[in-house]
Amino acid sequence: MTHDVKLTYAALKQCDLDDPLLAKRAAFHLPDNTLYLDGNSLGAMPKIAAERAAEVVSQQWGEHLITSWNRHNWIDLPFSVGDKIGRLIGAAPGQVVCCDSTSVNLFKVLCAALSLQPKRHTVLSVNGNFPTDLYMVEGLSQVTGTQRCQLKLVDDAKLEAAINQEVAVLLLTQVDFRSGRLFDMAKLTRLAQDKGALVIWDLAHSAGALPVAVDECNVDFAIGCGYKYFNGGPGAPAFIYAARRHHSTISQPLTGWMGHKTPFSFDTRYEKAPGIAQFLTGTPAVLSMSVLDAALEVFADVDMQQLRQKSLALSDCFQQLLSQHECLRGLERITPYNADERGSQLAYRHPDAYALCQALIKQGVIADFRAPDILRLGFTPLYLRYVDIWTAVEILADVMRSGEYLKTEYQVKHKVT
Amino acid sequence: MTHDVKLTYAALKQCDLDDPLLAKRAAFHLPDNTLYLDGNSLGAMPKIAAERAAEVVSQQWGEHLITSWNRHNWIDLPFSVGDKIGRLIGAAPGQVVCCDSTSVNLFKVLCAALSLQPKRHTVLSVNGNFPTDLYMVEGLSQVTGTQRCQLKLVDDAKLEAAINQEVAVLLLTQVDFRSGRLFDMAKLTRLAQDKGALVIWDLAHSAGALPVAVDECNVDFAIGCGYKYFNGGPGAPAFIYAARRHHSTISQPLTGWMGHKTPFSFDTRYEKAPGIAQFLTGTPAVLSMSVLDAALEVFADVDMQQLRQKSLALSDCFQQLLSQHECLRGLERITPYNADERGSQLAYRHPDAYALCQALIKQGVIADFRAPDILRLGFTPLYLRYVDIWTAVEILADVMRSGEYLKTEYQVKHKVT
């Protein structure tokens, strides 16, 4: 697909016919008359997820009750789901566990990383990082005091220069939630480790969206989300990656019974489990985790390089179609153009981004708004077709041309946007 | 029901006919040929829970996708479910929130309580407390240092004497997970507060099992579990109670975006939400929480005094039937006899408790084993009948008399017991 030739619907239809991932679309339930460009907020529902939810509720819980901990191996879910995620982020088995929320998991790995850095206390991140990541560092500072944990924020452009021998932990989100900017994991990890720092990567917007190689990049710790590109359902549990080389020496303070060496001996004193299990805290969220487990089966035969290619192609296609509409020139792209520097979304600044987003949703194109003025579109190659991109841009152009978005009803902000 | 007259099956059948809660049983799915005496580990499945799970997965997620945060009010679930729980533990609205696991929630309220006690650092509890509660205190000590948080453990018998002016926080589980012993919440809360201490009650084995009155007892903080007596499903989210008088002055370190005053403004700095929302951390576990929400509807018209009466009657009935079987004399009761001193379970010590439990399960009576030698039986008045108790004891007597439990197959320990 070149940018010189005008893209046509027919050409896009052909792209779909040539698409090796097209068949995957059938694995998802997609509502009629809806184009879903928000899989980076909440992934669409894999059909197998509905089946698994029914099975876990009615059969495993309803029929087999407490015996399911053994009979259906609920007790091992955090590890089996963890390993499935591990395969998709380039982690060898035994280094990923599924549990809790991304925020809670960040607290754990942050403490684990700092436990290896007795002489340093600076946690370096960027101003644009997802706020919850920054809040969790602030929260930890509050209990440890700033002499053990202090957040330092810089702009993206000053990041590399700020990585020095004061830094205990470099905390970055691989793909920026607003702009979709992709950091170079290999390079930044190396830069940090060269200065004696440890790295924590937040993979919320990259896991399941592009090939990630935590082992190969020698990453120390990572966290991520189950309900975006993994399609694990609303509020699906999150995950933790901790490189095996750290397992025996780290500690983290959310020492619940599931992280104990022998939880069912009910010892009065805590003794941490060996390996990745030490990151478990309370009872696993069996129902949600089972649904995520089912959703991950959809990825079992997916080639992540192929997925990445389609993700970039869909994004480029969107951009080219946009440029074919005079009326859409007012959308200022903030996502980098270079393929190596972006994830699986495009973001555009526009003074009426909120109203545009609402008007689009009304017309069946589900996009996302991020304060104060960003329209965000996520491209999920497992269930989006090239022709969907065509239709989405046509509707966007209609909304813009007609001034539909200027109606009062689209200006009123909802609780969640 | 008196202890002098021999209990008969006919008498128990009459008890069922006279039971005002009998109709509630129809709200639950109960497997055939199973007597479930383990609702204190994992509550049975309310039929409405299966319906809600299907609706949330297929309709709310599958059809309405991201728009459900507003359309189905996912964003308010932690508060609406919290208030439903609040009603059952005697908390006025706005003081309970549903989130995370019991262990993670304990960490939050522990920090919140200690934030009000700058001059004290002792967290007093009892040796027999549920281990995860003690582990979480240990974990916090690890990051704060013992000069801010130090666990002190005493035996139950020495508890009152140990409540002195050194104690920052008294941390107790109302009903002991092993013995079923019930602490006097009103008295112990008063004793602690008279010495300037704050109290945290773990309601894991009391919420939904008996009338709890946190407001009336002037409790400071409480936590509890969604999957036991509330029947919220495996790994259902837990809850936090924090008395309104503390909301403006406390702080806790798991400061995720959902606890921010305005999460969707994506500010770089954390500013805590007013009220109970400050205890939220990451994205709510929508699917699991919705199922718990449905399960709580079963309680909407339940009189907790009536539930308590039946719970005690079922327990007494079990004990009396036990005493009618010569062969069951070897079971040494460790649960207090006084109704004011026990929850909704009975626990018996026996050298072969593990094998007995396994043999019972094989015969369809699901009981629970707690290391090293305790057979635990939970009584859940919403779905157990008096005649079920009769049948359970008959089977227990058969297993004991026949020596069935001595077979090798029952001696082999499973991963989870």
From TrEMBL, chains A, B:
Cofactors that this protein relies on: pyridoxal 5'-phosphate
Any GO CC annotation of this UniProt entry: cytoplasm
Source superkingdom: Bacteria
GO molecular function: kynureninase activity; pyridoxal phosphate binding
Role of this protein: Catalyzes the cleavage of L-kynurenine (L-Kyn) and L-3-hydroxykynurenine (L-3OHKyn) into anthranilic acid (AA) and 3-hydroxyanthranilic acid (3-OHAA), respectively.
Pfam families in the record: KYNU_C
Listed EC numbers: 3.7.1.3
GO biological process, one term: anthranilate metabolic process
Enzyme class: hydrolase
Modification N6-(pyridoxal phosphate)lysine occurs at: K228
Listed name of the protein: Kynureninase
NCBIfam families reported for this sequence: kynureninase (TIGR01814)
Catalytic reaction(s) noted: 3-hydroxy-L-kynurenine + H2O = 3-hydroxyanthranilate + L-alanine + H(+); L-kynurenine + H2O = anthranilate + L-alanine + H(+)
UniProt pathway annotation: Cofactor biosynthesis; NAD(+) biosynthesis; quinolinate from L-kynurenine: step 2/3; Amino-acid degradation; L-kynurenine degradation; L-alanine and anthranilate from L-kynurenine: step 1/1
Residues the record lists as binding pyridoxal 5'-phosphate: T102, S103, F130, P131, T132, D133, T173, D202, H205, Y227, W257, T283
Complex and partners: Homodimer.
Family: Belongs to the kynureninase family.
Gene3D superfamilies listed in its UniProt record: Aspartate Aminotransferase, domain 1, Type I PLP-dependent aspartate aminotransferase-like (Major domain)
Keyword list, A-Z: Hydrolase, Pyridine nucleotide biosynthesis, Pyridoxal phosphate
